[in-house]
């Protein structure tokens, strides 16, 4: 990944250019809160918004994009099919519902939110049909480990373009980074700041002090230097601006390795093999 500025992109395996920095809107309330966050982000130069049907804010996202007066083709928009909508027919209906809520003719990226075991292959078959139809420009998955990705690759006819997993200094999953790199599947990280739990780490604070940056900025820069697309979430204008101010410094290879060494396989979300039980207990 060549890191230049907020306008930088990576090329997916189907040739689509995707901005490597985006705004995540998980838990952003539909309506004014999510619309304001997107307006702040677009004003700051972001051109990548990550939402999902499960977030229940697609309508606000769509309205914010419509109000922005920025050309639709200049904004990269991701959404995801939720667990209850998966399967072949359910997924075909889910994309139409998301497009309607977002007031869009197409999505740039559509993802399977979690790999529901009994329907994963059929869901991917629907994803391939949606991709061929032109309703989405790229397809991929979230929250997968090797055997789930293997199932898709072995049974599908189109290779995923992207995998979005939980990714932060306490959960590097280098095996998954390597898996994707070997197959030319782009890696993207959610919860890059570990829901704030990583921000008081001494190593990160020391590195941040060296560069005159915040710990969050150090982590987001580390994401990009690891070749990982990052989508920090915030609804605060100053934080959204700060999260994008990561292009005037570069971590040394030694610093990247020291941050890698913080890995303790610690998750803030569910494990891909146990998410069904996780959500059943919610």
- CATH top level is Alpha Beta
Q: Report the mean per-residue pLDDT as an integer.
A: 96
CATH T-level topology: TIM Barrel
- What is the tally of beta strands? 10
In the CATH hierarchy, what is the superfamily? Answer: NADP-dependent oxidoreductase domain
Category from helices, strands and their pairing: alpha/beta
Summarize the helix and strand pattern as letters.
EEEHEHEHEHEHEHEHHEHHH
Task: Please state how the strands of the largest beta sheet are arranged side by side.
Answer: 3-4-5-6-7-8-9-10
- Under the CATH scheme, the architecture is Alpha-Beta Barrel
The rough form would be described as: globular
Can you give the helix content as a percent range?
40-55%
Total of helices:
11
Amino-to-carboxy terminus distance: 38 Å
Rg over CA atoms: 18 Å
Query: What amount of the residues lies in strands?
Result: 5-15%
The number of domains is: 1
Labels describing this entry:
282 residues, globular, two-stranded antiparallel ribbon, TIM Barrel, 10 strands, 11 helices, alpha/beta, 8-stranded parallel β-sheet
Write a compact overview of the structure shown.
With 282 residues, the chain is α/β, with parallel strands linked by helices.
Question: Could you walk me through the main structural features you see in this protein, from its secondary elements to its overall organization?
Answer:
The chain is of the alpha/beta class. Helix 1 packs across helix 2 (58-68). 41% of the residues lie in helices and 13% in strands. The chain is globular, with a radius of gyration of 18 Å. It contains eleven helices and ten strands. The termini are far apart. The protein has one domain: TIM Barrel, CATH 3.20.20. The record marks 80 as: Lowers pKa of active site Tyr. InterPro entries: AKR (IPR020471), Aldo/ket_reductase_CS (IPR018170), NAD(P)_OxRdtase_dom_sf (IPR036812), NADP_OxRdtase_dom (IPR023210). Keywords: NADP, Oxidoreductase. The active site is at 55 (proton donor).
């Amino acid at each position: 990944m060549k890191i230049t500025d907020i306008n930088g992109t990576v090329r997916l395996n189907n040739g689509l250019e995707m901005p490597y920095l985006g705004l995540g809107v998980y838990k952003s309330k539909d309506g004014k809160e999510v619309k304001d966050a997107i307006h702040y982000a677009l004003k700051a130069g972001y051109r990548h918004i990550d939402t999902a049907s499960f977030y229940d804010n697609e309508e606000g996202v769509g309205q914010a994009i419509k109000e922005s007066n920025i050309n639709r083709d200049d904004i990269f928009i991701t959404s995801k099919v939720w667990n209850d909508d998966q399967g072949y027919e359910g997924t075909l209906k889910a994309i139409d519902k998301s497009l309607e809520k977002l007031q869009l003719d197409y999505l740039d990226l559509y993802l399977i939110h979690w790999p529901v075991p009994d329907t994963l292959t059929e869901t991917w078959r629907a994803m391939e049909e949606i991709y061929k139809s032109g309703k989405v420009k790229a397809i991929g998955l979230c929250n997968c480990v090797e055997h789930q990705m293997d199932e898709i690759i072995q049974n599908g006819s189109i290779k995923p373009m992207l995998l979005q997993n939980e990714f932060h200094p306490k959960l590097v999953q280098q095996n998954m980074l390597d898996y994707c790199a070997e197959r030319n599947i782009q890696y993207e990280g959610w919860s890059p700041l570990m829901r704030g739990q990583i921000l008081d780490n001494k190593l990160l604070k020391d590195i941040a002090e060296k560069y005159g940056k915040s710990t969050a900025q150090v982590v987001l820069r580390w994401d990009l230097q690891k070749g990982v697309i990052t989508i920090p979430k915030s609804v605060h204008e100053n934080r959204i601006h700060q999260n994008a101010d990561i292009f005037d410094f570069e971590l040394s290879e030694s610093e990247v390795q020291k941050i890698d060494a913080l890995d303790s396989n610690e998750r803030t979300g569910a494990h891909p093999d146990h998410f069904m039980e996780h959500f059943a207990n919610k």
